[in-house]
Design goal:
- It is globular and about 50 Å long.
- By secondary structure, the protein is of the alpha/beta class.
Length: 229
Amino acid sequence: MNRLFTFGCSFTSFYWPTWADILGQQFDTYYNFGMCATGNEFIFHRLTEAHARYNITANDLVIIQWTNFAREDRYKNGRWIPSGNIFTQEVYPHDWIRDWFDLRGAFLKTSSVIAGATHLLENAGCEFHFTSMMPMTHIDMTKDEFIDTEVHDIVTVYKKYYDIIKPSIAGYLFDSLPYCRNPEPIIAKYRSEQKEWREDNHPTPLQHLRYTKEIIIPSLKNNIALKDS
């Protein structure tokens, strides 16, 4: 394989190395198209853009980390607007969420883009793998857990696409679902202007390394030996 293309949210591209960066060190050419707080529509649009720009072929490896389905992706003024979980973000006002956001509709759109990505990559002839931030039907609503049965019929229709998604990163590494809380959080301060350090629940580099070794690498067609670095 000549090139590695990775896609996802902050579980793919973050302030410290992720599974994508660890695996990317083993390739001469590596593209990480992940972006913090973005959703599955963004991930799909970045995939189609990457394919148009770089012509993904049978010699390439593509890994997509799907994210929380309750996110809103929009492009405005020359950039994507990341908002994260619709229930905890500060981009869209509560009135807009009440009037225009629909959980079932969001899950339906996520299912559609996963199917679309599958067909695009099958047509490209490349090796590809899907993982996810957390189990695809889980959503942290802060007070109420989303009920899987509300989208059971959608999962049934798109079953063959969901079946190829590997164990989620949070589900494999954490014991805190459905709330996606890291039992070994890092205390971090990302920018010099931040006054206080805070607890961060994203996977640590060592946790990302564990997921890479135990879930991603064994799934690949060709064995990859991680460099000591």
